[in-house]
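Example record

The entry below shows one chain as it appears in the dataset: sequence first, then structure tokens.
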Amino acid sequence: MRFKAVIIGLVCVVLSIPSYNVVPSFISSEMNKLTGGSSSPMSYEILSKLGIPPVDTMVTLIQYSFVGLFVAGLGIIAFGIVSKNMPKRTFSKLTIESKAMHSEESKDDVLHVLKERLANGEITSSQYQDIRKVLEDKI
């Protein structure tokens, strides 16, 4: 479970419920202050020329927005409950000491693979000698 997602979803749900009820009355009162009253047809005409929709339309759209926030919050909560935390990636560090400890083992492994390739006919004996010299110098 992802607790951050659950908490974010709960915040969305908790904020959307009271806002659905409180914001429409706030918008109505503010629009009435702006227009000078609720029954003035002149003020609605001016607002419509400015591209501002009627108060009823704005209230409906805002309420739909809060319903959407509520549904989104429920979805986030469901996601947080269903999903699992991903394990953190850890990177191994190769130290010089560990490399030195494994150098003898890796030298034997490399020479073994080289001998197998010679036995299988993948390389010639002169190629085997050249590669073995290079490997012995590096390892």
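Notes for this example: The two ends are 49 Å apart (CA to CA). The chain has a mean pLDDT of 79.
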